[in-house]
Amino acid sequence: MTDERRQKIESVLSKRQNDLTVVLENVFDPHNISAVMRSCDAVGIQEIYVLNTKIPRHKKWGARSSSSAAKWLTVYQFENTEECFTELRKKYPTVLTTHLSSDAVSLYQLNLANPVALVFGNEHSGVSEEIIKLADGNFIIPQVGMIRSLDISVACAVTLYEAYRQKQQAGHYHQQRLGQEDYLSLFNKWELNLD
Amino acid sequence: MTDERRQKIESVLSKRQNDLTVVLENVFDPHNISAVMRSCDAVGIQEIYVLNTKIPRHKKWGARSSSSAAKWLTVYQFENTEECFTELRKKYPTVLTTHLSSDAVSLYQLNLANPVALVFGNEHSGVSEEIIKLADGNFIIPQVGMIRSLDISVACAVTLYEAYRQKQQAGHYHQQRLGQEDYLSLFNKWELNLD
């Protein structure tokens, strides 16, 4: 491994966040999943939860290519909502959905510097009732236009970058957030990811 | 027109912004253009500039369907950069590009509540040298991941929603921003847009 490559990996790992994740519930289109993963990588999210209760388990999102974000993320796959939430709750005290509901608050009212898991639902039916009941709240991305149609990759990117902005202000990218064990384990794995 | 529809149009027009626009320079993929237009509509941008110096003039982006954002935007098309900038400069004192350059500042350092035009470039080659020379500055969306690949629709949405956030804080959605003449002209046009 070149020094440059080692420095790149160290720099990225030193900015990976241990308190922000994304849950994709029955998101169908692989392009949407890839786009969400790129946004996760871009803001320093390390792990994401892929929950498929209604659609077949996804293939590996091109994880073999080093230009694929999947190669640099830890992806947990579940086919059972309760199991997914049991795991999720071990690390994330707050779980928020993007379901459109009367008690939804604006994205810009959230404190995203606190540990939180953000759930995005199926392209057509949104987040399921089951998840909404298990979650702690809903938020919406405000829209003031004639049409309502931010797609999931855009909605997720806008949300994650608002988290980035808040976490940046809170100093979350200024010092290592991963535990040392996770840091080293990822470092060893990423060393072998090189083409 | 139903009262509900009239109220919707009035509500949207009352939030349209007169001091924020997007310039798309040689953006090739119609899906990207549509996605950018949806984001524009969503944050209350009324007019966008489509500049094609290298690729054929675009068709009408499905503007016939009321679910298309193009139907609710004022789209100016140019094939000449100077002409485009002459028009642009009449309304927008500041023009910023997203070109990756050493003097680029972070999106989050910009004051987007001031009048500004934001230029997004071709999917492969980015914003042209010609535009960079004519513009007032560059900005980047910070990325802390292993791969660098926010696509244009995501980059544009993240940028426009940061503008939304700042403009919301500055009270720009609390009172009509369009001149009364523009407001009425759009109202009359939108009345006829109904299916």
SSE topology sketch:
The structure is a homodimer of 195-residue chains.
Chain A: H1 3-15, E1 20-25, H2 30-43, E2 47-51, E3 74-78, H3 81-91, E4 95-97, E5 105-106, E6 116-120, H4 129-134, E7 137-140, H5 152-169, H6 180-191
Parallel strand pairs in A: 1-2, 1-6, 2-3, 4-6, 4-7, 5-7
Explain this structure to me?
- The structure is a homodimer of 195-residue chains.
- By secondary structure, chain A is an alpha/beta fold.
- The first copy, chain A, has a 7-stranded parallel beta sheet with strand order 3-2-1-6-4-7-5, sandwiched between helices.
- In chain A, helix 2 links the parallel strand 1 (20-25) and strand 2 (47-51).
- Chain A has helices at residues 3-15, 30-43, 81-91, 129-134, 152-169, 180-191; strands at 20-25, 47-51, 74-78, 95-97, 105-106, 116-120, 137-140.
- Chain A starts with a helix and ends with a helix.
- The longest helix of chain A has 18 residues, at 152-169.
- The first copy, chain A, is globular.
- In chain A, helix 1 runs antiparallel to helix 6 and helix 2 (30-43) packs parallel to helix 5 (152-169).
- Chain A binds chain B through residues 8-9, 11-12, 15, 35, 38-44, 66-69, 71-72, 108, 141-151, 153-154, 157-158, 161-162, 164-165, 168, 173, 190, and chain B through 8-9, 11-12, 15, 35, 38-44, 66-69, 71-72, 108, 141-151, 153-154, 157-158, 161-162, 164-165, 168, 173, 190.
Keywords summarizing the entry:
195 residues; homodimer; 7 strands; 38% helix; alpha/beta; seven-stranded parallel β-sheet
